[in-house]
Design brief:
The protein is an alpha+beta fold. It has 14 helices and 14 strands.
């Protein structure tokens, strides 16, 4: 490295750092809650990954820009990557997809996190953000200040999120006569849209302008005698300041470039990719299981693993509605068809279904029918367990014959069994709760 800067001279505040080449062109942009702690890892001889070495060897300058909070670092990084498009931010991703905040176009817009913003052609996409989890945490914090709706259907009575201050209430109530807002609460569609605009402004880097506008509105309402409205705006400003002052969304025990290449999860997913000959890294894996007793009272579930770990906020339940005499493949057809009727759900990189050749064929057929143009090919695997004659094995679209799990790398075989076991556990739990009368069908 020809960069003359040494770690002791780097500040310990949050911010964004930029590696540049001799012409001053950005090579890589990253963020950190503590710049010194993050950047010192690039000054160590233990850089093993060839791509990282290439980037560091090409860099002749290291710049940084301080921020007042983790959230501001996340947002600034997003803006700079979008504007400057550093080549190593793409190369180092190992086919990972950046996350986007998607603002839907509907009467009461929703705020979603998606790796595929093009799936929402009429929505506003803000990003890219390098860490989906950090973006989700930011939205959870902002939602406490500017409530918005996440309900999938309207209710006769206000939802739980309304009662804990995370939902405006008016957005998902069937009858406005059942809506009784607290003092200073959102009472109109205009109030709701102001909340959405505030979140949009913050994620777009317009926090300062937003604070000035909220302050101006507070003064206008106070002068007009609307003390209740002025107090509400002041409370929002105070909450917003606390969010930015206290939020810790960036984990400094990891560092962007190095962790992408050396983390155990990344190694596992690369091993899975190589073993199954997948076209891309399986960041989002969806696992499907059907639970029933002798073909009756059937339910289905979708379990999601994101970056190798269960993502329980993405789990979904399906009460089988059609003729259950069609068997497991018929019920799987229903579940997958209903799943693909949700374009707002991110598409998977890999689908694992519980079953054999029949289930694999069914899944491939339904995917081809329902996937959007350009995504007609998707990786699908079927897992068969406890086969007395063959043993645990998988079916893939590439091979007509079963592949024994014992012939796969142990880490891959164990991971596939873990995926299947989690889906089976969730399906059994849903089936039991359904027959205790404690379920709400999806």
């Amino acid at each position: 490295m020809t960069i003359s800067i040494k770690p002791p001279t780097i500040p310990t505040q949050s911010g964004v750092y930029i590696f540049k080449d001799k012409k001053g062109k950005p090579l890589y942009i990253g963020k950190a809650a503590n710049l010194r702690a993050r950047l010192k890892n690039y000054f160590t001889p233990r850089l093993a990954d060839g791509r990282i070495k290439k980037m560091v060897a090409s860099a002749t300058r290291l710049d940084w820009q301080l921020t007042n909070s983790d959230i501001e670092a996340l947002i600034l990084e997003s803006q700079l990557i979008k504007r400057l498009k550093p080549k190593f931010n793409i190369v180092m991703r190992d086919d990972k997809r950046y996350a986007y905040a998607v603002i839907t176009k509907e009467e009461f817009p929703k705020v979603l996190v998606s790796h595929q913003p093009d799936s929402f052609p009429e929505a506003i996409a803000i990003g890219p953000f390098t860490e989906a989890n950090a973006l989700k945490t930011t939205l959870r914090l902002l939602r406490r200040v500017f409530p918005y709706c996440t309900c999938k259907q309207k209710h006769n009575v206000p939802c739980l999120n309304y009662h804990i201050g995370k939902c405006a209430g008016i957005c998902c109530i069937k009858s406005i006569s059942n809506y009784h807002p607290p003092a200073g609460g959102s009472t109109t569609k205009e109030d709701y849209h102001k909340n959405i605009k505030a979140i949009t402004d913050i994620l777009s880097g317009e926090k300062t302008a937003l604070i000035k506008e909220l302050g101006r509105q507070m003064e206008v309402r106070a002068k007009a005698g609307d003390l209740e409205g002025a107090i509400k705006l002041r409370a929002q400003l105070e909450k917003l300041e606390r969010v930015f002052a206290n939020a810790q969304i960036i984990k400094d025990n990891q560092y962007d470039l190095l962790s992408e290449s050396t983390s155990p999860v990344n190694k596992l997913l690369n091993e899975l990719r190589a073993t199954l000959k997948l076209k891309k890294l399986p960041q989002r894996i969806e696992v499907y299981d059907i639970s029933n007793i002798q073909g009756q009272h059937a339910v289905g579930v979708m379990v999601v693993f994101t970056n190798g770990e269960p993502d329980k906020n993405q789990y979904r339940k399906f009460k089988i509605l059609r003729d259950q005499s069609l068997g497991d493949t018929g019920m799987l057809t229903e579940v997958l068809t209903r799943r693909f009727n949700h374009p707002e759900w991110p598409l998977p990189d890999l689908i694992l279904v519980d079953g054999g050749k029949g289930q694999l064929g069914t899944a491939i057929k339904i995917a081809k029918i329902n996937l959007p143009a350009g995504r007609q090919e998707i990786n699908i695997v079927a897992l068969t367990k406890n086969d007395k004659h063959v043993g645990n094995h998988i079916y893939t679209a590439q091979k007509g014959k079963p592949v024994l799990l014992k012939d796969l790398p142990p880490v891959v075989a164990n991971f596939l069994l873990r995926l299947d076991a989690e889906a089976h556990r969730f399906a059994i739990a849903y089936y039991r709760s359904k027959h205790r009368g404690q379920y709400r069908p999806t």
